[in-house]
Specification:
Blueprint: H1 13-23, E1 40-44, E2 47-50, E3 55-58, H2 61-64, H3 73-85, H4 97-110, E4 114-118, H5 121-138, E5 146-150, H6 159-162, E6 183-185, H7 198-211, E7 215-220, E8 224-225, E9 231-232, H8 235-248, E10 251-255, E11 279-282, E12 294-298, H9 300-306, H10 319-334, H11 337-352, E13 361-367, E14 370-375, H12 381-390, E15 393-394, E16 401-404, H13 412-426
Parallel strand pairs: 3-15, 5-6, 5-7, 7-10, 10-11
Antiparallel strand pairs: 1-2, 2-3, 4-12, 8-9, 11-12, 13-14, 14-16
Helix pairs in contact: 3-10, 4-10, 5-9, 7-8, 11-13, 12-13
């Protein structure tokens, strides 16, 4: 019966795990989960404290979001101060200082004029796609109803976002028959530091030219493909896509949800190619990992071509989220994040080098504060997590990837601890 039973309070770790098994469905798992779940009781600085007393160095920044670490006094205070005024107010017909300030800051940082707030990265991508299609229709080209992207990408778990994820090797292949069919270029060849492949550039030219009449936009993750495989590619490919979009009157959407705010060594992935997209999606690190918030930005030209955008998340522009986002971006501007990311990159390169020659390891790659060991075969997630946790580290591997995206506060010793754990995990393959 609905409403029956008391709210559970004061339970211990074992009780929480039991209730979790009974009622909670975790991301990317079956019910019950085949991968162990661990109860966190506290998160401070760079570390998570588990219910059994163990402390783990978080090498994931809570899925790439907590770039300043946990329990940061500046961010804590921003939430407390905003809570004294209001926790939430609808954004339809109303506005407030934290959201307006954040929009101004993001516009200044990106060179894009208009900011549409959302509540998750997937929704930000959905909004970007709607913007592109409405712009095509509003500018007299309603036949442009497709998108072009590259294989190996990941843009979120909602339907529009799934339709531009990798259709063969991505995690959403079960839905392929239900999704809109878009145009996919091959996987970008080589890595970030490799020479651009002229044949691939010609293939991009040919593909865009052949489909330009039906393309509303090109959508890509700049320089780094995230959850689709943690691959890096040369900025020349991104630069050429910008040129092709301009040549054919197509919009360019940059999904910077994973790459934004310094993760790759530049503030945004697009900065590696010195380009500005027409539409940009932001999320994850936007609030420093404190609250869910995302944004879709566009140029004035795009906004003028769209007119009325029929979208409006209930928690759009949430005051608490935008207030802590402002504090996080202020903190990022003050800290030497470029030097921090370079230090992390150097530590990852040094610490992961040993794994390159190990049996079962396909590739080792590093860019900015991203370190990846790619295995030849799919990994046993539970087994790998046991190994890294034994080394005092929290990672969340998937597919054929043992990877890290640590907080920027990580020093040389912490990066060495993370890489030792990753190499030890690779040694068990």
């Amino acid at each position: 019966m609905l409403g029956k039973g008391p709210i559970v309070a004061g339970v211990n770790g074992d009780d929480i795990l039991r209730l979790d098994r009974d009622h909670v469905w975790h991301p990317y798992t079956a019910v019950p989960s085949t991968v162990p779940v661990h109860v966190v009781t506290k998160a401070t600085g760079l570390r998570l404290t588990l219910a059994d007393g163990r402390e783990l160095l978080d090498g994931m920044s809570s899925w790439w979001a907590a770039i300043h670490g946990y329990d940061h006094p500046r961010l804590n205070q921003a939430v407390r101060d905003q809570l004294d005024d209001m926790a939430h107010v609808m954004f339809g017909g109303l506005t407030h200082e934290p959201a307006v300030r954040l929009a101004q800051t993001l516009s200044t940082m990106t060179g894009l004029d208009k900011v549409f707030f959302a509540d998750s990265g997937s929704v930000a991508v959905e909004v970007a796609i709607k913007m592109a299609f409405q712009y095509a229709s509003g500018t007299g080209r309603p036949g442009r109803s497709k998108l072009l992207t590259v294989r190996g990408g990941y843009h979120g778990d909602t339907f529009g976002a799934m339709s531009v994820c990798d259709p063969v090797n991505g995690m959403h292949h079960l839905f392929s028959g239900l999704l809109p069919q878009h145009v996919f270029a091959p996987l970008p060849p080589g890595g970030y530091g490799s020479s651009p492949d002229d044949a691939y550039l010609r293939e991009l030219d040919s593909l865009v030219s052949a489909h330009a009449h039906e393309l509303a936009a090109i959508i890509v993750e700049p320089v780094v493909q995230g959850a689709g495989g943690m691959r890096f590619y040369h900025p020349a490919y991104l630069r050429r896509l910008r040129e092709l979009a301009d040549e054919h009157g197509i919009l360019l959407i940059a999904d910077e949800i994973a790459t934004g705010f310094g993760r790759t060594g530049e503030m945004f992935g697009c900065d590696h190619a010195a380009i500005t997209p027409d539409i940009m999606c932001l999320g994850k690190a936007l609030t420093g990992g404190y609250m869910t918030l995302a944004a879709t930005l566009c140029s004035q030209k795009v906004a003028d071509g769209i007119g009325v955008l029929m979208h409006g998340p209930t928690y759009m522009g949430n005051p608490l989220a935008t207030a802590v986002a402002n504090a996080s971006l202020e903190l990022l501007a003050e800290r030497p994040w470029r030097e921090e990311v370079k230090r992390i990159e150097a530590g990852l390169l040094d610490g992961l080098a040993e794994a390159a020659g190990m049996p079962g390891v396909h590739d080792v790659r590093v860019l900015g504060a991203i370190g990846v060991i790619e295995t030849a075969e799919p990994i046993d997630v539970a087994k790998i997590q046991d190994v890294v946790m034994a080394h005092g580290v929290w990672l969340r591997p998937f597919g054929r990837l043992i990877y890290t995206m640590p907080p920027y506060d990580c020093g040389t010793d912490e990066i060495a601890q993370i890489t030792r754990a990753m190499v030890a995990a690779a040694a068990t393959l």
